[in-house]
Write a structure and sequence with these properties.
By secondary structure, this protein is of the alpha+beta class. The chain has 2 domains: 75 residues, Glutaredoxin (3-Layer(aba) Sandwich), CATH 3.40.30; 115 residues, Glutathione S-transferase Yfyf (Class Pi), Chain A, domain 2, CATH 1.20.1050.10. Helix content is 52%, strand content 7%. It has a 4-stranded mixed sheet with strand order 2-1-3-4, with helices on one face. The radius of gyration is 17 Å and the shape is globular. The two termini are 17 Å apart. The structure holds glutathione. The site of glutathione has 14 residues, from α1 and α3.
Length: 202
């Protein structure tokens, strides 16, 4: 199995962490996004949306969207369960995973794209929108700080894919100076806990 990815990209990292948690080996193929390796015809044949990560199975089947890929691996190797096992756990993890994705990962990614000009060859950066996204990310962190004052992990007492999404987003946020500060002691406690896991090195 191959995963097309970019070492520094947050969506790629969440898949790497997920696979490390499951102890699943794949061959990683690096693309240079800024050089446009993902914009070639060859890559678009694998993912018409030209985004990484992309999983390619032995028979040539390709799956993109990081959460879809994670779900595939959860199905073929259920342990350790990272999407929950009961109906309630699954719903709760889905809720926190989506909140981490829409509340932190997306604004962080948008802030990066619109404030850094990294992809100015393929989009028109809008600095004001980028700055709004930074504010949204801090708004999310404020709410999550409250939530983590009484929960060990995002979805309660078990580590899950929601934590993986938030860890990847937070670490990536440093690139554009979205950082935890004295207003986020509970997020800091959570961050110290999850970033000590061996998978966080992925
Ligand atoms: N929803 C997608 C997002 C994928 C995505 O935005 N990937 C970024 C890297 S983190 C990318 O490929 N960017 C290249 C580009 O926009 O040209 C997922 O979860 O996989």
């Amino acid at each position: 199995m191959k995963v097309y990815e970019t070492k520094t990209a947050p969506n790629a990292r969440r898949l790497r962490i997920f696979l490390a948690e499951k102890n699943i080996d794949v061959d990683y193929i690096q693309l240079e996004l800024q050089k446009g390796d993902n914009l070639t015809e060859e890559f678009r044949a694998k993912n018409p949306f030209a985004k990484i990560p992309v999983l390619e199975l032995e028979d040539g089947t390709v799956i993109s969207e990081s959460v879809a890929i994670c779900r595939y691996f959860e199905e073929i190797q259920p342990e350790p369960a990272l999407f929950g096992t009961s109906a309630l756990e699954r719903a709760n993890i889905e809720m926190w995973q989506r909140r981490a994705e829409f509340g932190l990962l997306m604004p962080t990614g948008m802030a990066f794209q619109h404030c850094s000009g990294y992809f100015k060859d393929r989009m028109t950066p809008n600095q004001t929108w980028g700055e709004d996204c930074v504010k949204s990310a801090y708004g999310y962190l404020k709410l999550i700080n409250q939530h983590l004052s009484s929960n060990t992990y995002l979805a309660g007492e078990s580590f899950s894919v929601a934590d993986i999404t938030m860890l990847s987003a937070l670490d990536f946020g440093r690139v554009i100076d979205i950082r935890l500060n004295e207003k986020h002691p509970h997020v800091q406690r959570w961050y110290d806990l999850v970033s000590q896991r061996p998978s966080a090195k992925a």
